[in-house]
Amino acid sequence: MKTKVGVMGLRYLIIGNSAAGIFAAETIRGLDSIGKITMISKEDCLPYSRCLTSYFIGKEISEEGMYIRNKDFYTQTGIDFIGGNVERVDPDSRCVWLDNGEKVNYDKLLIATGASPFSPPLEGSDMEGVFQLRTSADAKAIAEFAPKVKTAVVMGAGLVGLKGAHGLHELGIKVTVVGSAPYLMRYSTDPESSEVLIKLLEKDGYRILLNTKAERILGEKNSNGRMSVSGVVLNTGEHISCQMVLKAIGVRPNVQLVEGSGVFVNKGIVVDDEMETYVKDIYAAGDVAEADDFLTGEKSVSALWPTATEQGIIAGCNMAGLKRRYRGSLALNSAVICGVGLISAGIMNLPPGEGLVLKAVEPKKSFYRKFVIKDGRLIGMIMVGNIEGAGILSSLIRKKAKVDINYLNYLLTSPVKYHGYFPTGEGRE
Amino acid sequence: MGLYIRPRSLGIISKPLERDDDLRTSICCLCNGGCGLKVSLDHEGKVQAVFGDRDNPYNKGKICAKPMEIVQTLYGPYRVGHPLRRINGKFERITWEEALKLIAQRYNHYSQENGTGSIVGITSKIGGSYSKLAHSIFSKLTGMANYGTGPICMESELKVRKDIFGNGSASSPLSDVIKSKIMLIVGNNCAQTKAGQFHWISEAKQQGTKVVVIDTRFTETAQMADRFIQIRPGTDTVLGMALLKIIINNNLYDQAFVSEYTNGFEQLAEAVEAFTLKQAADITGVPRNVIEELAEDLAVRKPGMLFEGRGIVCVNNAGASIRAFEDLMAILGNIGKPGAGIISHINNYGNARDLIPKKDVIKPDRKRSATALYQAMEEGEIKMVFIAGNPCVNWPDSRRMTQAIQGLDFVVSHTLFLDDSAMLADIVLPATHWLEEAGVQASVHRVLQWKDQAAATYAESRSGGDLFRQLAKYMGLETSYFPNSPQKAWELERTHNKSIEGITVERLRKTPGGVHFPCPANGQEAERLYESSLFPTPSGRVELARKNNIAIEYINVFDSPGNQGVSPEKYPYLLSTNKVASHYHTICQYSNWAQEMEKQPYVEMHPQTASELGLTDGDPVRLETVTGSLVLPARITFSVPRGYFTTQPYFGLHSPYRQTPVNSLFPVAVDPVGGNFANKNIMCSASAEGRAGQ
Amino acid sequence: MQKIYYRANHCDGCQACEVACIEKKSFTKSLFMAKLEQPTPKARINFEKFDNKYWASICQHCIEAMCVGACMTGAMHYSETGEVVHNLEQCVGCGMCIMVCPFGAVVMLEDAKKVSKCDLCEDEKIPPCVIACTRRALCYCTPEDYENEGWGDGLAISHHW
Q1: Among residues A100, A315, B135, C33, which one has the fewest Cβ atoms lying within 10 Å of its Cβ?
Q2: Domain segments of chain C: what residues?
Q3: ipTM strictly over 0.85?
Q4: Are A417 and C94 inside 8 Å of each other by CB?
Q5: Is-contact A268 A253, C-beta < 8 A?
């Protein structure tokens, strides 16, 4: 199906074995059947999905369920896997150095190291019972600790925080979500949809505290002599008693390894539209990369699974010699909260006075839809409730096509279905 | 795409002609429905049209296609008008005297040389009450064993119901359905085939009776039902058991009735544990919530009625299914009350007793089951057969039946038409049509209705009543036992049968719609059976379990008689026959109207099945079972499930259709419990038949 | 690889495709029981009437499928022959595929908390929806056949890269 391109015998090196790395490796293998692909990762295990860690905590899936590829993946794809930590990239001699002193040469390098959880320093963060949720190891640690927990505080009301909270809630733990933002999932909702979701969550027994910060984690000595979490003090002065704290404030790209290599780092590793960094033959993709934003055209880091896979594919293509341009990352988010789907895309919140916003809300049915239109084009949307057909709208955003406002008004309350064309008022799209 | 239903012949309401100076009243004798008819005669006294009789309280003027089709058959080219004798392979006209003399001579010869068991009668449609009585007297005097419609129609139903309630007849009249709260119709397309009765169900539905139809096919009846439950072929037993299970486990049954009037409840409760509800749902293809809802409906909506059709009776595991559903009605206490009970076309009013002194009664020297009949004919044990009907078309494995009859020494056919069976006869005798004969007709409401002779007898045809009396004379038997008119026959029958003693011809003539039986000498008619909760079983109670203490035993349709040992790889599909209104009996094929309504037999199949076979609508398809194969045009419809074929039975080679009878595809196999031949759910294979020009 | 193509100019909006799909995807395999089933089976083909025009959208088994990239569980993947296959066991119903599918061809099975889409009915020679379509608005063929018959606009093949 995929045509071969005449780049042969190259040594590809991929650092990181998550979304971007895996898709890049598969793309390379599809284009170049003889090139040598090496993959290095800190996590010496099969590729798994970080997005599924919360499902694992909630026992909705097994440990095997987190793996996104089967156990023969490396051999089938022909990847030499090295479990290790890359310390330094040396573009001049085209090699990377592992922390055990080993050297791995490359012709094309992809940095797909992802991001790490980040949180401002907080008193008591080193206690037993304070967790973060990123890797499967984190998830396993939480799952192991969870039976001792009756109540938990999740710091951060973003997607990771809510998913983590959901996982704990599934185990019967009473969860309080503490978010500093004025509404839930700041980057993928708006105040109204957040309102709908909060109602759902509170009905299910979650406690949601917004515009709130945790000031301090309280602890007490447990039976094995270590300090263990006993509560959290909020900036409102409230004291919440709990046995677990899950920190899910945000992530930072893992860029330490390129320090001093000449690879330009802003927030993440800055790449061009071929996913190549400012250093030749070094590519970056996924959460670590800072690529063009689809709508604004500005460089930005987008820590989303679909973005990572798309960037991985583009990087893979370009590494294997097939020139493909990245069209820019579009903010896309999907979450299922208390059985109600939420999908958002593009720019959800415009400054007042700009553009046009269409909204439909039915709080009783947990239904909410919002379309953001600018210059006659759809640039953002939120769907809560019936999410089927969301892809049609997100592709509409991607197409930057002019869309008839009446048509969008119709879609506001009707099931979104593909018609073969979108009414634009200018004939067929 | 094809059709979801067959749209034809839905609720035909006939209207009498304006000029009705020669309009006679009659009763339809075709399906034991007992619909009142008006027969319009032309100036020659020939029947020119048949309508529904609006004054008849049972069918209220509504009739189906079959009696109307009769008009063309009565004087049509296929009708036999004179006795015929086969000489050198050709039929030659002879006189009645010659014919009767010959038959009497051969009869006596075989009877003396080979024993009474060497002569059998296959008499599916012998005529009205007059002919039936004469036939039974003749049989008693000569020891002739007879095979009626039982094994091809209702044997299982009769036997199982008799086991349970002590009487095989319908417990309630169909008119009771208006009083019922729920009407369960199982395997019965009465909207199509019983238009004269179906209006009761429509009326009931309008009054709030919930009509639930359980069927494999989406029929016309299903279309009007409140709830249609499509069930996988041959799994009715499991559905019945699941319903019983829910009702027993949740104590929804009529506990007073069960403890006072039934036996075998424990065995029943034990038997229904054979399946979990999930298993039942998996087997039947009916979602669990639907089964539960139906069980609840049945428990809450009382009284309720049950109307079983051939779809559950003429199946190779019928006995268990019928028992499951009838036990269900019993434990719900839906018996012997207005608006409760079981509707059926079985309406046995019993046989006349002691008509003939014991000294003159000869018993057949051999007894054979219906399945053993084939072998006995093939092995020459049977020398002569008296046919009134068309076994070469309507008995299973028709080819084998045809060959067996062909191999006999002497065959007599008393028939309306030169049909497939008559063509094999040595002597063909012209029979009267039921319109040409007076008599009593029993009907689905368990009533007896009198009909006068509506039309003059055609040519030289004679009724069975006359035939047997005259034959007895030629055979040197005592003729004084035989009545010589329909009225006298009824009088004789009535006085020798306690259950109808109070029903005189005069009373029948005076009472529109007839008289319910049993009606003993005191004249008290019984509209409903078991109202006194007295059951004519040996124990006097309802027998919920079989005599072997096993209440219900489900037999997988693929392991049922006829399918046992058949390779599912070679025969992956199931074949059934289902009657349509216009071709309900074998005689229908001789009517032009019937041909207009259903041009030819066809085989219905699901589009996906058709696609598997590479067929489009109308393409010829070859169906093959272990007993043979034949080609029929395909009709593609969503109304049948996948992997299932259904076609119309009762077409013959010696008819305008020139069609190999589809019954030749059905093996001689009977339901082990009930004894019915299976003409449904036989494993078959199918393939596209090469089209001309390809 | 064969897939289902929709030709709008042949469609008369009878929705038999949807019906056939529901029947096929139902537990009972019965059109008549499907509506009584819990959960109610959903068609994998999305029929829509808009502007007096009909359209049936169905999984296009894209060469580079957005849903495969978006799927965070690996449930969406390509088969050996190139179809986009969805493994129901791996699916957690996160809705990522719904979020990106430009045809709206992925449906949510609310009760199972999973999604599903057209799987071309692998156990069938020809998918039931195609059989049900008497006007041949749905074609089950290879992209090459589709273009060779002159039904397409040349894009079906050129999308290979």
Answers
A1: A100
A2: 1-58+118-151
A3: yes
A4: no
A5: yes
